[in-house]
Amino acid sequence: MVNTTVTTPGQLDVDIVRNANKRDPALLREQRFLRKLLADDHNAAAFQRFLTEQRLSSHVLVIGQKPLD
Question: Where are the domains of the chain?
Fold first, then answer.
């Protein structure tokens, strides 16, 4: 691959954990900090921005181009 770009857009991390916790509240039973952080929309959004800015997102976007020859 040429012209390969790797980015971590980081848009889904918090939503995935929040939705998983809604389905199974026992998931974060012993994670008081995360429960409090994710319970508030403002704090959850700020945490997602932090993950994105620090390139800590678990989601990755890879763009590459097959060589022409």
Answer: 2-65
